[in-house]
Amino acid sequence: MATTKAARTAVKNDLNTLKDDLKVLGAEEKARLREKATAAEARVRAKAADAEARLREQSEVMRERARGYYDTARVRGQEYYDEAQERFDEAQRYITERVQERPVQSTAIALGVGVVLGLLLAGRRR
């Protein structure tokens, strides 16, 4: 019986030693994993910072390109506006001259156009 008790005590001591060794190994592995996680986090942060810098560069390029398009469109729009204004003024002068040359005929035409528009609008209401 003494041998069995001694064997049990030896096995118990071995199990306690194994348990302690597992705790130590677990703690060491946990520390290693933390170090790896910290290194991975640093790499990810560096890549994120690099990506952010590239995105800022690209956004600045796109902003400048958009400003160029805007300036071009603004200049063209002003040119079209000026041309349209000039044509409108020209048409207005032409109509004024024609009305001054033939006032009775112009009045009759305006009256006729008014009657036709009135009939068209009155027909839609019915």
Essential attributes:
single chain, 126 residues
Give a written overview of the molecule:
With 126 residues, this protein is mainly α. The chain has two helices and no strands. Helix 1 packs across helix 2. The chain is rod-shaped, with a radius of gyration of 46 Å. The model has no long low-confidence stretch (mean pLDDT 91).
State the secondary-structure class. Answer: mainly alpha
* Rg computed from alpha carbons, rounded to a whole number of angstroms: 46 Å
Question: Percent range for helical residues?
Answer: over 70%
Distance between the termini: 121 Å
* Uncertain segments: none
Measured by DSSP, the beta-strand proportion falls in under 5%
Count of runs of 4 or more consecutive helical residues: 2
Shape: rod-shaped
The number of strands is 0
Taken in chain order, the helices and strands follow as: HH
What value does the average pLDDT take? Answer: 91
What characterizes the major β-sheet?
A: none
